[in-house]
Amino acid sequence: MPYNFLKQFKKACKHNRKNIIPWGGVLNDADDDFNIRTETQLYEFISHGGLENPRHTNTKPWEKNPKPDNPIMVFGYTFTTMCKKGYIAIMRNELTNKWIIKSFHRSVDINTNTSMQVALQKALIDLKGK
Amino acid sequence: MEEIICPACGDNDLGKKILIKQINEPYGGIKHVETISYTCNLCGFSGDILKENEKSLQLAIDELKAQAVKNILGMFQKNHYNFSAIERALEIPQRSLSKWKSSSKPSAAVVALLKYLHLFPWLIEVAEQKYDFKKAQQIHMTDALSQFVSQMTFNEETRWAETTTTFEVLRMRITQTFESESQEDPDDGFGFSLVSRNDECLALE
């Protein structure tokens, strides 16, 4: 279910951008952390496989939902890009038919620096290639 | 006219405000752009619901990138780089740099290339050597070493040390250390660091 949700979101980033809206501050974080400045750049990045190794981390109800009769779930994922680890949280309101990007920033995990891990993975791939 | 509703909760109690967003571009400068943000009074959502900011943001970014290209090429000219020579070394068509300088919307690849050339001008020399890996490493190392040496501080003490023998310098340092230790708090470790720092200077000489 969470991976299908992400798949649908990626599809929307490619074909249905008018129905995606980033929450205020998301673009500032995207600029600060990933050099992504505009919505178009963000959707291009996501739809073209920019979120590497996506991993579902949590699903929880939207805490500030004022209409409990229309439950909205927030899906959180971590991902990597180059040597950075990032976090994206998305939700969808079925009634308004809109996707909301709630967060998009560097992951604040303890293992934020994944450069060593990425380097080891690359070395392993090189070894397997030989 | 279509009613504006909050995309998150679907409510129509929205407030509109104008925010000033600052855009920075390396070597291009800073621009301030007015952006529109809608805030839902019910759920707290805020964002560009009608997607009105995209165009103005992109325009400002493009202008800053064009300015960055102008500034970088201006700095090349100021430092007496010959455009024709750079174009020859990089194997790009002649007059390309001049065209980029006057372009109002240079391509992203051009902006990235020029930023790299501005940061690492020795990359032009690498291209001149036909991107040979060994030569490229030599050029890189030469530049790194010259940067390193130019940033080293040769103060009065080390200049004086050049005209004496190592033994004399060491003896003098030890005497100075004892003198300073007697004046300073003995627990602060200052005397020890003075000796080790001077030893490093001698080793480098």
Spatial strand arrangement across the major sheet of chain A: 1-5-4-3-2
Relative helix content of chain A: 25-40%
Count of DSSP H/I helices of chain B: 9
Order of helix and strand elements from N to C terminus of chain A: HEHHEEEEH
Count of DSSP strands of chain B: 3
Q: What's the story with the biggest beta sheet of chain B?
A: 3 strands, antiparallel
Provide the gyration radius of chain B in Å.
29 Å
Radius of gyration of chain A: 16 Å
Quaternary structure classification = heterodimer
**Helix-strand makeup class of chain B:** alpha+beta
**For the terminal residues of chain A, how far apart are their CA atoms?**
38 Å
Structural shape of chain B: flat
Low-confidence stretches of chain B: 184-205
**Pattern of helices and strands of chain B:** EEEHHHHHHHHH
Strand arrangement, major sheet of chain B:
1-2-3
How much strand of chain A?
25-35%
Q: Helix- and strand-based class of chain A?
A: alpha+beta
Keywords summarizing the entry:
heterodimer, A: 130 residues, alpha+beta, five-stranded mixed sheet, 4 helices, elongated, B: 205 residues, three-stranded antiparallel sheet, 9 helices, 57% helix, flat
Structural write-up:
The complex is a heterodimer of chains A (130) and B (205). Chain A has 130 residues and is an alpha+beta fold. In chain A, 36% of the residues lie in helices and 32% in strands. Chain A has 4 helices and 5 strands, in the order αβααββββα. Chain B has a 3-stranded antiparallel sheet. Chain B has helices at residues 54-78, 83-90, 96-102, 108-119, 122-128, 133-151, 156-161, 166-183, 190-204; strands at 14-25, 29-40, 46-47. In chain B, strand 2 and strand 3 (46-47) form a beta hairpin. Chain B is built from 9 helices and 3 strands. The A-B interface holds A 18, 21-26, 37-40, 62, 64-67, 70, 72, 91, 93, 95-96, 98, 100 and B 5-11, 23, 37, 39, 42-49, 51, 54, 57-58, 61.
